[in-house]
Specification:
about 350 residues; four-stranded parallel beta sheet; six-stranded parallel beta sheet
């Protein structure tokens, strides 16, 4: 009897019909039939891009012809890996925000593409932190080879503490001096500075920041805007708390616009989603954008170019960011330390400001 210990990548029993007098029961059998090494056959069936496309398709066709399937459970026991990456979205600062938020969906889509292309499954978790051990519980579950965090929220200290002992961890977010955990993200301070300098250059003198400043990324965007205004010897921007949760955003924006009516000539929204809702609310009130009030966003999600008028915003390349996150995580899974990556923001001037 063939056992998983004897043939760690054995095919499932009775799955391989005889063809030409040969039975393909093991990965070694398949490799010999294909004329390649066992390692190449294994990587081809795992969809690894390091295998030539033509060779991979030929091996996959032979496997299908002979009904061969890798015994993934035995393989994972042998390699001490689960083949699963955890993707967690911590929402300490925004407990009502949903995963359907366009930013989350865009970045998650890119991460899922990059991970599945490399043969990994994904375990997605939306976390409402009620204790400081939430991340430790995830990384110590024994179900994951590594963890990606979409955002740092207000959980920077928790992430830092876990990263001191758990290395296959990468977060999307800001990079601070002497930071322990590996993060990939745009220079949010620079992005806020670019927006402020642009609006000031086009004549704006009284600005408002539409967004909360409790999460690290938004704090940095607000700081950058304040720096631009200070350099121009202008008063600091009016800061208007606006949550990203869709069930309260519209009402908060309406209340904020009532508060600043006639007092500002530019609104710097903390995100494209907030900016889109702000433009819609202004236009509904008969306020011309950008004639009366300029509006800018942050992210450059697809909605930024699709809305009318088209949104002036700061672009953070989410596709490149997702690729960098996955590359860093896989290196860390293999024991290679990787530094944080701070991407350069790009100001995209369109029609709203």
């Amino acid at each position: 009897m063939t056992t998983a210990d004897q043939h760690p990548d054995a095919a499932l029993p009775d799955s391989a019909p005889a063809t030409g007098g040969r039975r393909v029961r093991t990965l070694k059998d398949l490799a010999q039939l294909a004329g390649v090494s066992t390692g190449t056959a294994s990587r081809a069936l795992a969809g690894k891009s390091v295998v030539n496309g033509e060779t991979r398709r030929r091996i996959e066709a032979l496997a299908a012809e002979h009904g061969f399937q890798l015994n993934q459970m035995a393989r994972r026991l042998r390699t001490q890996r689960t083949g699963v990456i955890g993707v967690a979205v911590p929402l300490g600062h925004e407990r009502r925000q949903h995963l359907s938020d366009p930013f989350f969906m865009t970045l998650l889509g890119h991460l899922a593409d990059r991970l599945t292309e490399r043969g990994y499954d994904i375990m997605l978790t939306r976390v409402i932190p009620d204790a400081d051990d939430w991340l430790d519980m995830i990384v110590r579950s024994g179900m994951l080879d590594g963890v990606l965090l979409i955002g740092q929220s207000d959980q920077y200290a928790v992430i830092e503490a876990t990263a001191r002992t758990y290395r296959p961890l990468v977060a999307w977010g800001s990079v601070l001096p002497d930071q322990v955990h590996c993060a990939v993200g745009v220079d949010n301070f620079r992005g806020g500075l670019l927006i402020g300098e642009h609006l000031i250059a086009r004549g704006a003198r009284r600005l408002a920041f539409m967004g909360e400043i409790r999460s690290l990324e938004l704090i940095e965007r607000h700081r950058g805007l304040c720096a631009a205004m200070a350099a121009a010897e202008l008063a600091p921007p009016v800061q208007l708390d606006t949550h990203l949760a869709s069930d309260v955003m519209a009402q908060e924006i309406a209340t904020n616009l009532d508060r600043i009516a006639g007092q500002v000539d530019g609104i710097v929204a903390a995100s494209d989603v907030i900016a889109q809702a702000t433009v819609a609310a202004l236009l509904a009130r008969g306020v011309a954008v950008p004639g009366d009030v300029a509006v800018t966003g942050f992210d450059d999600l697809p909605i930024a170019a699709q809305m009318r008028p088209r949104l002036t915003t700061v672009r953070q390349d989410l596709a490149a960011g997702a690729e960098a996150m996955v590359a860093a995580l896989l290196a860390r899974i293999d024991g290679v330390a990787t530094p944080s990556v701070q991407m350069v923001p790009e100001l995209l001037v369109r029609e709203t400001g």
